[in-house]
Amino acid sequence: MLILAIDTALDACSVAVLDTDAGALLAQEQLLMKRGHAEALMPMIARVMQSANLAFTALDRIAVTVGPGSFTGLRVGISAARGLALAAERPAIGLTTLSAYAAAIVGQGKSAPVISAIDARHDHVYFQIVAGDGSQLVRPSVASIDEAIAASQFGAPHLVGNAANILAERWPKDVPQPVAVDAQPAPDIGWVAWLGAAADPATNPARPFYLKAPDAKPAAQPPFAAQAATP
């Protein structure tokens, strides 16, 4: 199976092509960035596909991270994945950033629970807790940092994600300490591809996975409109 994987959810723009029969990535590229995903993504996809020496019609499916993450970044990646999937008549698979973060640790075969954490700002994090075998212990949630730490009642955890250091710095001294802290700006694109290969297209659609509303919201009515309506 040939998988094109895309991630623009956080502070990187990443693309890879996975050949599951060969058990390896044929090509991959990543650029760390906080902005500019829209300009970087399509040229990166073109370069990766050229490096893999593949036409889009050779792909079996397209995998994309769907959140939590930057609202703008998510729209860029999901729109690209949907468009390419439609043109190639292939399924587009949506994967959460939290599961992609966790997969790299679960894949190491260790027993410690894994806490994936993403900075949600304002002293909050998006987080998920899975056991060492990948089974879910705490579903994806958004909570204050202290609430997220309090939810970890499963032994000394492995922290991963762009908020891993945030949790580690606030971790209480009187409870089992994290066995490892992997502060990564974005998930490993290779694991996004592998998760995309394993996922069921029927239950993993490529649509945004939001755990909270955007911080910036348009005004219900512009001030000048209210003034104009006043006699």
Automatic annotation (TrEMBL):
GO terms for cellular component: cytosol. Keywords: Transferase. Residues 209-231 are annotated as: Disordered. One of its GO terms (biological process) is tRNA threonylcarbamoyladenosine modification. Residues 34-157 form the Gcp-like domain. CDD domains: ASKHA_NBD_TsaB. Pfam families: TsaD (PF00814). Coiled coil: none annotated. It comes from the Bacteria. Residues 216-231 have a biased composition (Low complexity). InterPro entries: ATPase_NBD, Gcp-like_dom, T6A_TsaB. GO terms for molecular function: transferase activity. PANTHER family: TRNA N6-ADENOSINE THREONYLCARBAMOYLTRANSFERASE, TRNA THREONYLCARBAMOYLADENOSINE BIOSYNTHESIS PROTEIN TSAB. This is tRNA (Adenosine(37)-N6)-threonylcarbamoyltransferase complex dimerization subunit type 1 TsaB.
